[in-house]
Amino acid sequence: MNFDLSDEQRALASAAADFFASAASPSAARASLDAGAPIEPGRKAIADTGFAAITVPESAGGGGGSVLDLAVVAEQAGRVLAGPSLVTAARVAVLLDGDDARLAGFADGSAAYAVIEEDGGPVLDATTADRFLAFRDGAVVSGSGTVTDREPIDATRGLADVTLGDTEVVSADAAARWERALHVGQVVLAAEGLGTASKALEVAVDYAKQRVAFGRQIGSYQAIKHALVDAFVGVEQLRSLVWWAAWTADESPSELALAAAAAKGTAAVVLEHTAETLVQVHGGIGFTWEHDAHLYWRRAKVDRFLLGDDVDAFDTVARLAIAAAS
Amino acid sequence: MDFEDTPEEAAYRATVRDYIEAHRGELMSISEGGRRSMDLSAAKAHQALLYDGGLVGVTWPKEYGGQGGTQMQQAIVNQEVAKAGLAGLVGVIGLGMCGPTIIAHGSDYQKSRYLGRLLRADDVWCQLFSEPASGSDLAALRTRAVKTDSGSWRVNGQKVWTTLAHVADYGILLARTDPDVAKHRGLTMFVVDMHAPGVTVRPLRQMSGVAEFNEVFFDDVEIPDEERLGDVGDGWRVALTTLMSERLSLGGGGTDVGASLDAAAAHVAKRISELPEDRQALVRQEFGRQYAASLATRYTGYRQLSAISKGAMPGPEASAGKLAGTKTGRALADLGVRLLGKEGVYATTSDGDGRWQSSQAGLPGMAIAGGTDEILRNVLGERVLGLPPEPRADKGMSFNESLKLGGGSAGGAQ
Asked: Residue A260 and residue B99: Cα distance in Å, rounded?
């Protein structure tokens, strides 16, 4: 057994950390929210690095990598609240698999896809998309769409309502493909959540080491220390589920549905808890618009509802586990 | 990343499995292995037989009778023993804590006298650390060892929560030899003969009704100086070796806390259909959350095991696994009892099943033993997150001075 990242994956994480830290930030997220500034790094920049197309086959201009590779990168994107989401990239790669012409357009950044989860629902990365993938009558279809902007909680997610226009079939008889895309998307969403949560924890811990009250650093008080430790334990638990779930996507597809739901639901809970802790540990300053805390918090409050909420996810875990034991 | 055995691991696993299979009839099963009710000679024979097959002392150096193997091999043995439903080892404390401490700090005489017999369970060992007035604050312990004119040590005091003391032949004893220096600096470790005059062992009944551990009284117990383990005043450093080994032996490696996850799933699967639909949804929600949390704990254990197998030392991170595993274990036990419906008010169901009620009553102890949840949070906060320590009112004081602080008159024995 070797449940650890490879040296190549660590190098990939390091390269991704360098890129995302220079190309996106909580400040950029605030500017998107405040003034409608472009979401950073943006589709083109992410496509240019090759990160968006990690799981696209080399024959279509992608990296030919694994879901775990993509998850490792997604964690780094999550740390700096980058957008558009690699969740969309992960799903597109599955939904267009075998269609090298379309995939090549996605890989080089010339085609800006978003995936319509369900009709009438919010669509991730819609505000920067120019074409949409959806599931119609058992087929994956691609088409234009009319985007209706809504007031965002987290502008980096590019969420909007979409009315699908004319479509053409990309892949018929594609129920299994649609489902796999959802599961892989859940894994990558959890990986982004892992990055956001671990960064939020670091910010909170740093503050607890500096801020003094009653003559002591507040991190010396058990009330603060234990809250931070509970967040830390949650982040480490989540890391294990993200890695395992990504591994099942690549190596053990029969376990993917359960693993993806476990990772997705845990990410929702852990990120929300960590972000709430971040705000609380900062006290009044953590409640200001100027501070970054609310930007992580916003990501948490939005992500928990994407690709099913935590209640859906844990219900799925239970149903699958009960079925396996019956 | 992979979860399969390497060829070497697979070959080792096959050897272990074959040995267990070949001796299945002579080995004890888990139902026979309760610590209080066990047949001691059978438990000793069980361990000796496993030792003969190389399944005990897997990671111990060969020169002390061990196999010189890896932590991964130990994990494989643990997994196969659990899979076969074999009883635990009567030497669990000796193997996990006392032996490694002797290997690290013992004299040549102590190593040759004790280690071989410990491995084969010729002798059973216990660990005498906690006291009524010093649990979490272990270094504040009060049991005194005073040097006599003849050069031996005379010990008086009381220990508590001592697993296996009622059948133990020896123990490692942490005692205060100098009360006029800071509490951590006035301690010394000894090997104590549990059959020596003045040693009294009394079983201690837990809230679960089971009596798994004991309190131990020392009244003028004489210990020869050659049984001192490490230098005078170096007991705290020696104890840290023991606690580090404990961390490793409790190190999880992905095993479930409380009832196994499979058992919990089977229980839910059996009971859920008897419930009205609104209740079923609630059960699925709680079970799904705890199932995911259990998987997270399992895979966190695998991560640690992978790191250790590459040569990393088990660090305080292992405490995170214990915190999370305890929490989930308790929640699953609670769900297990709730699923019994009104029968949950009784200690066993009408068909004689008391597993969930036993878990419910036993698991609060997991949040206390081996470091309370609160102490583990301090350890993680300070050693892993680097947060500043809680101020200590007894800092810079000698042990005797610290007794004058609040609570100092509480007394040892009660």
From this structure: 43
Give the model confidence (pLDDT) of B381-403 as tens digits. Answer: 999 999 999 888 999 999 999 99
What is the DSSP annotation of A4-60?
Answer: S--HHHHHHHHHHHHHHHHH--HHHHHHHHHH-PPPSB-HHHHHHHT-TTTTS-GGG
189-248 in chain A: CB under 8 A from chain B: 205, 208-209, 216-217, 219-222, 224-226, 228-230, 232-233, 236-241, 243-244, 247
Rounded distance, CA A157 to CA A178, Å?
21
B222 flagged as catalytic = no
| pLDDT average per 10 residues of sequence, chain A (326 residues) | 93 98 98 96 97 96 97 98 98 97 95 94 97 97 97 98 96 97 98 98 98 97 98 97 98 97 98 98 97 98 98 98 96
Between chains, do B385 and A205 touch, taking CB under 8 Å as contact?
yes
Q: What interface predicted TM-score (ipTM) does this complex get?
A: 0.97
Per-residue model confidence as pLDDT tens digits over B217-237: 999 999 999 999 999 999 999
Q: What's this model's pTM, rounded to 2 decimal places?
A: 0.94
Report CB contact under 8 Å: B295, A262: yes
User: According to DSSP H, which parts of chain A are helical?
Assistant: 7-23, 26-35, 43-49, 67-79, 86-95, 100-107, 175-210, 222-251, 256-282, 293-303, 310-325
- Interface contact A311, partner B, CB < 8 A: yes
In chain A, residues with a C-beta closer than 8 Å to the C-beta of B262 are 325
ω into A84 cis (within 30 of 0): yes
Q: Which amino acid is at A317?
A: V
Partner-chain residue, chosen from A1, A266, A319, that has the shortest CB–CB distance to B306: A1
Distance of alpha carbon B137 from alpha carbon B129, whole angstroms = 11
Residue with tokens 């740093």: A206
